[in-house]
Design brief:
With about 100 residues, the protein is an alpha+beta fold. Helices cover about 20% and strands about 45% of the residues.
Amino acid sequence: MKAELLYRSKNVLSDGAIVEMVIWKLPHPVAGSRHDYKYRLFYGYEGQRVVGYDNERGKGDHRHIKGHEEAYEFSTVDKLIADFLGDVHIRRQRGR
């Protein structure tokens, strides 16, 4: 099995904010993760990440919220997207 792109989207919102999600299904886990997905979810502005979720090789699943990095407990792709969009919603309510 080769890597399979499951989802890719990029939207630029009216205030210039970018919401981008890329999720791959892999033949085996990325080092540091226990599942077969590779993902990068981004919300922010050009040159400024406000919310980010990813599973960088060696670091495993984690998220970035306003410059703070913390572990993230991955369970499903649907939950990943819901958690990310929930954090984006909170940040948009509070402003940058």
